[in-house]
Amino acid sequence: MAVVWADLAPAFAFSATTLDSIFTRFPPADPQIALIQAALVKLYNGSATARALIDQGGGLTTDAEGVSRFTKQITIYKCPDPGNSFARPGIVSLNADIVNNLTWMGVDGRLHKEVLEDTVIHELVHAITGRRDFSDPSPAGQVAYNAADYNFPGPTQYVANQVMLELGYDPGFRQAGYLAVVGAGSSLRSDLSYTEGNLVSGAVLLRNRDDDGGPNVDVSQNTFSYLADSLYGTALNSDLAGNKTFSLSAI
């Protein structure tokens, strides 16, 4: 049965107080609150993975009479940076304007603008499960892209990609890599597919920096064993197994 915001409200609290410079308060009647609420309802109604995650974070329990209720709350703060979002255990920091400020490479080789549901579920995965953005504890960028098991989207975005599929987005819409984000002023074009319409298993945008792998990194040995990654027992993105990866050198 489909839920409305009143059903989910006990599992979330929009903070009226500021925690620090990254986790700030929502002003009264902030229009972003309604946008985030709508995204949460869409996620819960449209994705079994998102529903299970929210149920876990909200501590959903069912009593002897069959009545279910949330017993915990996830606190939502406002992110002061309209192009970013953050999470810590049990809390997230969101800004609905991220949809106007974030673009990334999809597995179809095209640039895609962020959608709020993707941001929300990505941060909820962090806050509820503790999954990392990267598949190892190395600092951002300190990774071997040519490793056979390198996870380009990362453990958290992997779940978000699965949720986007369940919401009905095209398979090519999935973010191809956590480090496949395109910044303002990029020379990459949005009117074509850099893979000529073929789906790929991963991507990284190389920025000619030592911590980003350099412009000539070899990813040809990647066998994508990470495609067995799962949450709640469901293999994620396995339909991409066997496809080739690509790298782009952003100018």
Question: Care to describe what's here?
Answer:
The chain is α/β, with parallel strands linked by helices. The protein folds into 2 domains: 5-100, no CATH class; 103-113 and 131-249, no CATH class. The chain is built from 5 helices and 13 strands. It has helices at 5-8, 31-46, 48-57, 116-129, 154-166, and strands at residues 12-14, 61-62, 68-69, 74-78, 86-88, 91-94, 103-105, 111-113, 181-182, 203-206, 230-231, 234-235, 246-249. It has a 4-stranded mixed beta sheet, with helices on one face. The chain has a 3-stranded antiparallel beta sheet with strand order 8-7-9, with no helix packed on it. A hairpin with a 2-residue loop joins β11 (230-231) and β12. α2 (31-46) crosses α4 (116-129). The longest helix has 16 residues, at 31-46. The radius of gyration is 19 Å and the shape is globular. Residues 208-217, 224-230 and 233-251 have low confidence and may be disordered.
Keyphrases for this structure?
5 helices, 23% helix, disordered C terminus, single chain, globular, 2 domains, 4-stranded mixed sheet, 251 residues, alpha/beta, 3-stranded antiparallel sheet
Helix content: 10-25%
Query: What best-fitting shape do the alpha-carbon axes yield?
Result: globular
Provide the structure class.
alpha/beta
Rg result? 19 Å
Strand coverage percent: 15-25%
Number of domains in the coordinates? 2
| Mean pLDDT reading | 81
Characterize the main sheet: 4 strands, mixed
User: How many DSSP helices?
Assistant: 5
Q: How widely separated are the two ends?
A: 49 Å
Secondary-structure element string: HEHHEEEEEEEHHEEEEE
Low-confidence blocks of residues:
208-217, 224-230, 233-251
The total beta strand count reads: 13
Strand order across the largest sheet: 1-4-6-5
